[in-house]
Amino acid sequence: MAPRENFLSLIRREGFEYIPVEFILCPALIERFKKETGSDDY
Do the Cβ atoms of 1 and 9 come closer than 8 Å? Predict the structure, then answer.
């Protein structure tokens, strides 16, 4: 299934192969994450 077909079937609630997700932190949260976990790979 092509990414476009996957997205359209996800919206239509017909099933999907994967859910497209993008996770981005603002610079302040990245620094806090680094401080609390010791890792920069969130």
Answer: yes
